[in-house]
Amino acid sequence: ALAARDLVAALGGPRFPVAPGRRDSRRSDARDVEGNLPRTNMSARAMVRLFARKGLAPREMVALAGAHTVGFSHCAEFAPRIYGYRGASHDPRLNPEFARALQRSCAGYRTDPTVSIFNDIVTPRDFDETYYKNLPHGLGLLASDAAIWEYPPTRVFAQRYAANRTAFFEDFAAAMQRLGAVGVKTGRQGVVRRRCDALD
Which residue, among 18, 39, 27, has the nearest Cα to 144 in the 3D structure? Predict the structure, then answer.
């Protein structure tokens, strides 16, 4: 959380406080991730439900999706959109030129799973509102990005953030703070570790 805060600020994004001192879980299992984090091919409706179970509203979900203004995704995460999508050459929600460029760039992803693409191809090194501006032009890399634009209850926030960087930054900062308070362990729950990588 601290690293994310510092990276966002370093890339020109908003500054926000992070409450340190969360207790660690007594277990760590990859199987626990399923159902707790959005998948790259999720519908917006499903993502809204997932975030609601964590106490987060659609507005907060869309603001947090704005983190896709930086970073990258491996081709395997969106390959179904660009190769043989339901009998078509690509997902029709993608800009055709963008889809062809992705097909070329990801051609060897099966033999090299590290091949990846910036989430925001326009301003990949800036934390800004361009991610939202990309969506109506078919430049959302992941199916979940396109879904946010397609679903009216989430599109309204994407439109707001595309038009107003200040609104995005304010809502993103607030949502990150709320996200940091999800599932905080209290009382006898969890552990305070002497070593981060081991229970002791």
Answer: 39
Instruction: For residue 132, give the nearest of 143, 144, 142, 145 by alpha carbon.
Output: 145
Does the CA dihedral 149-154-159-162 come out positive or negative?
A: negative
The pLDDT, as a whole number, for residue 128 is 98
Nearest-angstrom CA–CA distance, 85 and 146: 14
Reported as type and span, the H/E element at residue 73 is strand 72-74
Residues facing 24 on adjacent strands: 191
Quote the CA–CA distance of 81 and 71 in Å, as a whole number.
Answer: 19
Residue 81's CB: how many other CB atoms inside 10 A? 21
Angle between helix 58-65 and 143-150 (nearest 10): 140
* Residue type, position 104, single letter: R
Report which residue type is found at 96. P
Comparing CA positions, the residue from 78, 51, 45 lying closest to residue 64 is 51
Bridge-based pairing state of the strands 116-118 and 72-74: antiparallel
Per-residue pLDDT tens digits for 62-93:
999 999 999 999 999 999 999 989 889 999 99
Tokens of 163: 């038009």
